[in-house]
Amino acid sequence: MIAAEDIIETKTADFVGRDYIFTAMEKFIEHHDRGFLILEGDPGAGKTAILAEYIRRTHCIGHFNLRAQGLNTAGHFIRGLSQQLTARYGAHPAGSTDSGESVSHMLREIRAGLPDELPLVIAVDALDEAEAAPLAANPLYLPGVLDKGVYFVLTTRRNTTPLRADGPFQRIDLRDFHDQTMEDVRRHLENKLSDEALARLVDDSHLSRDAVVDRLGEMSEGNFMYLYYTLIDLVRSPNLDLDRFLSELPQGLENYYAAHWESMGMAAAEAPTVNAWILYVLCEAETPLPAWIISRVVTRVTTQADPTFVQRRLIDWRQFLHADGSTSPAKYSLYHASFRDFLHRHDIVANAAVDLTNVRATIADLLWEHMIGDNGP
Ligand SMILES: Nc1ncnc2c1ncn2[C@@H]1O[C@H](COP(=O)(O)OP(=O)(O)OP(=O)(O)O)[C@@H](O)[C@H]1O
Ligand SMILES: [Mg+2]
Known about the structure:
Elements: H1 4-12, H2 19-31, E1 35-41, H3 47-58, E2 61-64, H4 74-89, H5 101-112, E3 120-125, E4 150-157, E5 169-173, H6 178-193, H7 196-204, H8 209-220, H9 224-236, H10 242-247, H11 252-263, H12 274-284, E6 289-290, H13 291-301, H14 307-316, E7 321-324, E8 331-334, H15 337-344, H16 346-352, H17 359-372
Parallel strand pairs: 1-4, 1-5, 2-3, 3-4
Antiparallel strand pairs: 6-8, 7-8
Helix pairs in contact: 1-3, 4-5, 6-8, 12-13, 13-14, 13-17
C-alpha cells in the first residue's frame, strides 16, 4: 500500500522551481474566502510533484488518486480524509463512505472549530484518475458548495474533469507558463547533471554541460516525466556515446514511449510477444500484481509464460514500474499513468494484436482463487 507520505517524499526529492504556481495558489486563498483552484497540465508535466511539494510546505490535508494501484475510489478518499482530519483536529464522526454527505459533513464540523483566519485546505491530486462518480455527483463526492474558509486545491490533466462547483473557482494551466517551466527544467537538469555518474559522462564527452542541458530541455518540451526516464537511461547505459544518444533523442513524451516500445521489440508486425502481454496485464490490472500472477494470467489468456521470464522482464523495465517491496513477493504496477495511456492508444493495442477482452476478468479470478484457496506460487 502506498501512503501519501511516501508519494510526497519520492515526488519532492529533487524538486525545483514552480514558485509562480505556489504564488498563484497563495494569492487565490488570500483573495477568496473559499473556493476551488484547479491546476491543469499534460501527462508528466509535473502536477503531482507540485501538489506534493505544496502539501509538504503548507502541511495541508492531502490525497493522491492512483488508478494503477486501485487507490482512486470515493471510499478511499473519504476514509483518508477522515483519518487525516481526526489525526489533526481530534475525533469526529467519519460518516458513511458511500455518500457525498459525509465529505460536506466532516468539513463543516472541522471548519466550525477552527479560528476564522485559518484556511482549511484540502489538496487532491489527479482528479482525472478518480473513479467515475454516479449520476450528477462530483468526482470523489467533492462538495459543489463550500463553507467559508474551505478550499480545494486540485490537479487534473487538461479538459478531463467535469466539476460542478459554485463560488470562487480558478484554473491554472501549466501550459501558460512555458518559459518559466523551461527555466525550471534547466535548473533540474543542471542539478541532475552535477550528480557524480552523470557529471562524469558529460566530462568524458566533448560536450559542454550547457549544451547537454539545452538539448535535453528542448527534446523534453518541458515535460518532467520525459527527463525522469531519459536520465535513468543515461545512468544505466555504460560506455554510452553521449553525442549520439542526444542526437537520437525522440521529441516529447509520446515519442519517447514509442521509441521505447520499438526497442522492446513490440512494434514488429508479428504475433504479440509474451513481452507485450506482460505489459498489457500490468496495464489492465487495477491493483499491483506479483510476477507469478502475471505469468498465470498470460498463460491463461494466451501462451505459456514462465514466472522467471516474467520476473526478468519486470526487472528490465523497472523504470516504467512501481515495485512494492513491502509485500513478499513484491508487487508491480505501472509507474506512471501516461505510459498506461500510451499502451491503450488504439494503434498501439492494434499493433500489438492483443485481445484485452478477458484480461481483467482473468486477473480478478486469479486474485479471488488466491484469496480463498492456497493457489500461491
Ligand atoms: N518541479 C520539479 N522538480 C523536480 N522534479 C519534478 C518536478 N516536477 C516533476 N518532477 C518529476 O517528474 C516526474 C513527472 O512528474 P509528475 O508525476 O508530477 O507529472 P504529472 O503531471 O502528475 O503527470 P500525470 O498527468 O501523468 O499524473 C516525476 O518523477 C516527478 O518527481
Ligand atoms: Mg500525476
